[in-house]
Amino acid sequence: MSKGDRLYAWLLAPALALMLVFYVYPVARVLWISVTDPAPGLGNYALLFTSASIQRMIVTTARISVLTTLITLVLAYIVAYVLIFSSESAKRMMLVGILIPLWISVLVRAFAWVALLRREGVVNNALMASGAIDQPLALIWNETGIMIGMVHYMLPLGILPLYSAMRDIDLRCIAAARGLGASPFQVFRRVFWPLSLPGVIGSGLLVFIFSLGFFVTPAILGGGRTLMAAEYINVQIHELVRWGIGTMVASTLVIVVVALVLLLGRLVDISRLFGSR
Q: What structural domains does the chain harbor?
């Protein structure tokens, strides 16, 4: 090993040690508990196929995550598309508006949605005052409220990767297609959409990964009536003290997320997706 290699290894050692102590060891510990508590073996994992409550939680988590991802992608694509064709001043203002929610605590945002969506909240009062409805709508303490809050949180995470991917599209291709007589819809369908598809895939997987493990917003806007994976883990460990089942669900979630990240890395260039090059 050369002197330069030894210096590089010494510089890398503190970061590697931190990763081992604060990330690798805790994850390995969770995996170990999942196969040893209350008895050694894969009994906890067998519950994935035999427990109705766990299966119901998995289906609920998957359904909410998929719907949240689809809604977020549609809204994020529209915003990113408008950003690409906006003037520089308008683009700066829009980016500030996109980034501001990231600076606000997720807890504050969740309670703000409670104030807006509850039966006596701003939304229901406005709809009833306009005569659109006669009775307050059930917009909270259910999956609807959870998805509204999650879409609001996920939108910046969907917009920014999409915008980064769209920014790399050569707009001269669009001008060429228009010059050859293609309609705006044909240009979008046959030129812009295929070129933006890697960004759509990357953004969708990123939002879906975040949605799978989301805790605060579902816990507050669901009111304990709709359990997703993260809240189910919290109940199992802190309320029922069933560490084996809680860590089994957590381990399963980690495995799924790692698999999705690996899939994301194979489908798109992650460094380009987030604008690092």
A: 1-34 (no CATH), 45-273 (1.10.3720.10)
